[in-house]
Amino acid sequence: MDNPDDIRYVLALVLTMMGPGAALFWFPVHPLARFWRRVGFGWAYVVGFGLYGAVALLAWRYRAVLLSVEFGTSSWTMGVGAGLMAASVLVRGLRGRQLSVGTLFGLPELAPHRFPPRLLTEGVYAWVRHPRYVQVILGFSGCAVFSNYLAAYLATVFLVLAILVVIRLEERELRERFGAEYEAYRARVPALIPRIDWRRLYRR
Predict the structure, then answer these.
(1) Neighbouring residues of 3: CB distance < 8 A, sequence distance ≥ 6
(2) For residue 201, what pLDDT band results from cuts at 50, 70 and 90?
(3) What are phi and psi of 189, to 5 degrees?
(4) Which residues form the domain of 51?
């Protein structure tokens, strides 16, 4: 697959299949966390991955229509896209030092008796409260810009909007779990965009 057009097409197809479903996966999980704790947290993943798979299959079924509009190969968009994807990999490396796979999939929320929750505030979590969503947004935005397909851009917009909703659902549960400790952390650290003290930098 040496042809840039083929690479762009595959990226657009993967993003269109994965992006919306990746965000929708959490919608039956966070609001129903107490229910899943009662019936078994495994069912949350059955429903979440079922929704994910259904969206992916629909995107595959209608891929010809979804990917019918594209804006061509551009060295500029490919360069910007590659830069965003590289930034996503960097954030992934920083985030991976604190966030375990179990926490990534919400096990402390769904099965707190088996996976004791811990509020993450160190490392990259001292800069933003949701580095994994920063990673996802950068990665999918990079793929969208690199591929330069309309459907990829729309899927990324949907993903970002869905993530903003998921953050509200997730933080509601975190406030219930950690109380004042999380409120203090939330007041101190921004959600997605690091806060830069420009006056301090200027003094240097």
Answers:
(1) none
(2) very low
(3) -120, 130
(4) 4-203
Which pLDDT value is given to residue 106?
A: 81
Q: What are phi and psi of 190, to 5 degrees?
A: -70, 165
**Model confidence over 156-182: pLDDT tens digits?**
999 999 999 999 988 988 888 889 999
Q: Cα angle at 139 between 137 and 142, to 5 degrees?
A: 105
**Of 191, 185, 108, 136, nearest to 18 (Cα)?**
136
Q: What domain count does the chain have?
A: 1
Tokens of 175: 């406030």
DSSP-derived secondary structure for 110-121: H-TTTS------
Q: Residue 77 carries which side chain, given as an amino acid letter? A: T
CATH of the domain at 128: 1.20.120.1630
Taking residues 89-98, what's their average pLDDT?
87
Distances (CA, A) of 145 to 47, 53, 165: 31, 24, 23
Asked if residue 55 lies in contact with residue 20, where contact means CB atoms within 8 angstroms, the answer is: yes
Three-state SS at 195: coil
Residue-averaged pLDDT of the chain: 88
